[in-house]
Amino acid sequence: MSHLVSYRSWRVVLYGLTAAAVTTLLLSEEKQKSGGMSDFGKMVPEGLINRGVIIPSFDKEGKKSSELRAETLTRIDDDRLLAEKVTIDLYAETPEKTLHVDLKSAVHHMTDQLLRSGERSVITRSDFETSGDSLVFDAATSIGSMKGRVRTLIFDTGTLSAKKEPANPPKK
Fold this sequence. Notes:
The protein is α+β, with helices and mostly antiparallel strands. It has helices at 7-26, 28-33, 37-42, 158-161; strands spanning 49-58, 64-75, 80-90, 99-109, 114-117, 121-125, 128-132, 134-138, 143-147, 151-154. Strands 1, 2, 3, 4, 5, 6, 7, 8, 9 and 10 form a ten-stranded antiparallel β-sheet that branches.
């Protein structure tokens, strides 16, 4: 079978997304407890592989604050989403401060709002790159950690501070 989704599958996805969206709107109190990726995950039918997924997030003013892209996204059970070949952009006020996250695969636990990856993960910004063998990110607190062979490269701190240091400082 090709990787294209049949008409019947699309109809099931659209029906599942519509029903879940109505349910999510009706349960606004529960929505405030979870939020973000957890709300989206509740709309994904269990077991169906979704390809080419793009999930934007917006702040209170309607400005895009992040974007998650995954080659595949599958709801494993009531609480977990499995994403493969994931990239996440966390947009900042300026492009230089925007964070880019690359994950081979990750599991999002909707109840706890935890994103976990047990494979080599990379986080980059214009002035640094950090990589590690595993990553855990708590979306509720915006705190994350990396473990196992963690490596950080700092490129040029002048890009953020706007201070330019001479390559060869003058000798006194």
